[in-house]
Amino acid sequence: MSGALSRRRFGLSVPNQVLAVLCLMYLVLYIERVNIATVAPSMTADLKLTNVQFGLAVSAFSYPYALIQLFGGWISDRFGTRRTLLFCGLLVSAATILTGFVGGLASLFALRLALGFGEGFAFPSATRAIATWLPASRWGFAQGVTHAAARLGNALTPPLIVGILAFVSWRGAFIALGLLNLVWIVCWLLVARDDPRKHPGMTEADRAALPSAKPRVPVSRALWLQLAKRIAPVTAVDFCYGWTLWVFLTWLPSFFFKNFHLDLAHSALFSAGVLLGGVAGDAVGGIVSDRIYRKTGNLQSARRNVIVTGMLGAFVFLIPVVMTHDLNTVAICLSLAFFFSELVVAPIWAVPMDIAPDHAGTASGMMNFGFGIAGITSPLVFGALLDWTGSWTAPFCGSIALLLVGAGLTVFMRPDRPFVARAQDGA
């Protein structure tokens, strides 16, 4: 393919093509991550799983996912995003297809582990790609639009799965989605390179807009520990945000199905309506964060203020969910709570890039470790509280409390202070 021919597809520059493929990746990976929530009533009945067992199976995804955050970003920094995301995509496809053949809790748990292992590399690697292909002034927007695509995947999943279930069983739905995953892998291989400056379709204007090229500095043990300490407050805030997100992604269809006694189709429609609020929240959070940064030049305001607004807004709108049993009121409040909680995503993913742009993959992986830990604990604790109390109130109250904690912890984040490695004594 000639440079002129590869320069633009669908009117997009090469950097925007990369961003578009990353959006597609986020959309598909989140469909594969959360489709288990939509088939939960059928799957748990077929496999004879309790709420605790189902929560355990869902949380299995996050054990390898959380651990890989600590070195998955380093892998992409070291070996490049093209090969890392190819490996990620192939493993996710295999794990999703094989989930259609599980026979019980053990095999389901094992394949959720494999899925978490595959997806664990994806988002730190994508962050590295964004830091490489786009200027810093677009980082908030890029994180917002990619995560908006993820939330669109969340919202599309319930009606999509219900539509698939009209033709095949829940097992067939997993097989179909595993094959769908191959689409973004092919697109990624066509457009991506590890060094954007060597892409034949890049114009001089495209190259001039890229971040300054710097030689890669190996992440030594001492540097890794210094960076981990610096990112720790962001990790803690991400845990608090992630707890609430996992509640939405894991339990929303079951909440409507069991608490309001809706059928599967109506549960899916209400779930999709709530999750659409997150699509808007992700996009708005990124746009507003970048706009504040361009107007003020103050990263602390651009990132922290948007995160605090999102967490406090979600806190306010989750309270009516435990105070009323009116379906329409609950659905509207859940939608608004999800919108506000998703305002957090773009700025919090931009913070590691602000702090350590030369180690964006490693730093963002450290941050997302908090989300992975939330993914381990949130589904399991929520399911245990649900079985223990027989009520949805106590589990939702846990999310409400953590949103306040997360908002308070933002005072310790300092995106305005770039990370500088300190020399070690005796080094």
Question: Gist?
Answer:
This protein is mainly α and 427 residues long. It is 78% helix and 0% strand. It has one domain (10-195, 231-412): Up-down Bundle (Growth Hormone, Chain: A), CATH 1.20.1250.
Could you please describe the fold and organization of this structure?
The protein is mainly α and 427 residues long. The protein has one domain: Growth Hormone, Chain: A (Up-down Bundle), CATH 1.20.1250.20. It is 78% helix and 0% strand. It contains 18 helices and no strands. Residues 1-6 have low confidence and may be disordered.
Calculate the terminal CA-CA distance, rounded to whole Å: 49 Å
- The secondary-structure class comes to mainly alpha
Number of domains: 1
What gyration radius follows from the Cα positions, in whole Å? 21 Å
Q: Can you tell me the overall shape?
A: globular
Mean pLDDT: 84
Major sheet description: none
Helix fraction by DSSP (H/I, runs of at least 4):
over 70%
Q: What's the total count of β strands? A: 0
The helix/strand order is HHHHHHHHHHHHHHHHHH
* Quaternary structure state of the chains depicted: single chain
Helix tally? Answer: 18
Looking at the structure, the CATH topology is: Growth Hormone, Chain: A
- CATH secondary-structure class: Mainly Alpha
CATH superfamily grouping: MFS general substrate transporter like domains
The CATH architecture would be Up-down Bundle
User: Any low-confidence stretches, pLDDT <50, length ≥5?
Assistant: 1-6
What percentage of amino acids are in beta strands?
under 5%
